[in-house]
Amino acid sequence: MQADAYRVWLSEIMLQQTTVAAVKPYYEKFLTLWPGVADLASAEDEAVMVAWAGLGYYSRARNLLKCARAVVGEFGGQFPDTASQLQKLPGIGPYTAAAVAAIAFRDPVAVVDGNVERVVTRLLAIETPLPQAKELVRGALQPLFPTGRPGDLAQAFMDLGATLCSPKRPTCSLCPLHEHCQAYADGQQERFPVKLPKLKKPTRKGAAFVLIRDDQQIWLQKRGPSGLLADMTQVPTTNWSSREDGETSVDASPCKADWQNAGEVRHTFTHFHLELSVYSARLSSGRKTTPASSETLAMGWWSDLDALNDEALPNLMRKVIACAL
DNA sequence: GAATCGTGGAC
DNA sequence: TGTCCAAGATT
Length: 325
What we know:
alpha+beta; Endonuclease III, domain 1; Nucleoside Triphosphate Pyrophosphohydrolase; three-stranded mixed β-sheet; three-stranded antiparallel β-sheet; 12 helices; globular; DNA-binding
């Protein structure tokens, strides 16, 4: 049973705000690279970021490593077996703690994710908007969970929400609970869960600079340790992730070169749209040193264009590089 | 409690 | 194209 906890935990972390289809190849890759929690705990930070690159929400990857090291360092390589203990570990919040405890350790705690919130707010026609309603959902569900196999009940509710009780056009006629569903009885199943209106996303602008040597080496650098895409790899850009920057001109280039306008990349993050103007320049292979002594170039390195899979490049940067080639 | 934090697929 | 949203956590 304990052997499963690592896999349950890994999958639940990856599945936070992420679809099963997107997670699957990453989950398999991680299990191949690091079959157990001790393997992961001893991995290099950079190797984990490279393996996670493209999956998004990169603080999950940093917390994943912190958590693995805590399990090895503080719990002798065994995950704690209750939700309350699990939730003290990095990256494990109320949902993940409950899911791991219920599925791997049969801890009878209510597991409440977005699917369960939707199913239960419909069953009870809860008018309270999310995220307030979350505690009402947990309270309504908890009495059902002191069963012999709480993990199965959790899985059942989540699967129901992921299939029949979908956000739009739920298939109520096939639902095993429709006779008990207040929202269905009222013919208002699509109105739940009630949510507060969302704010419109602003658009930020910036410029990205792709510097390529004749021998197919590209200049990369590391982002800072906090904020958006923290600790990930990038090509030089303007300071687009800070609110005030909107510089899109080649004038912002980090060094002198024959910059060519390569086009524009659009990318949408959780809370804003981004439009990056992409500029590219070629350098002769003889130039082995740092392109310039500019501050914005700071530290960086040359990387082979054929080996970008070994870099911790978020998908935004892959788009930018593809645009410049 | 509200903001922040990625990405890709569905409609 | 725009919007929603997917097995949330952190600050």
